[in-house]
Amino acid sequence: VKIFAPNIEQRDVVNHLKGSPAEEKRNVLVESARLARGNIQDLAELKADEFDAVIFPGGFGVAKNLCSWAVDGKNCTVNEHVNSTLQAFHSAKKPIGLCCISPVLAAKVFPGCEVTVGQDKNVDGRFPDAETASAIAELGCKHICKNVNESHVDKTNKIVTTCAFMCKAPLHEIFDGIGTMVQEVLKLA
């Protein structure tokens, strides 16, 4: 297992203690290295032929830095290294795992694919970002409704997705869904 991140400036920095933007600038690779305890490489160096699969986490880092979904929604652009990584794994018929908001990357890069970001309606207030499913459909992809503890496998494209924090759920349910995504990716590898 190796960890990669793009060597780019973050769109913005948030002071999570105050819940507001901070004036400082940070680099995505440097910040990712902090989280990965230094064991990380520039995404530009990733070679798909050296790996059996790729998994993208989710969160605002994806929506703000790996693509511009947080600002542009379905009209977003995908970072060039993220795009080329996804294309390389897809062309090699190797599995791609995506959780939380990162299934929108597949929706932008692979028209016609199947993904899940949970439900397409805000069921019991648990899916506040349910409109993301509609945006995925508008991109020409099929959104599959799944519960937080489940994943969806697009067998044709070898794309496995789960909603993770797109659902307001207890951490153990989010953990279970991510676990099923990883298991399904490994089955396809």
From TrEMBL:
Gene3D superfamilies: 3.40.50.880. This is GAL3A protein.
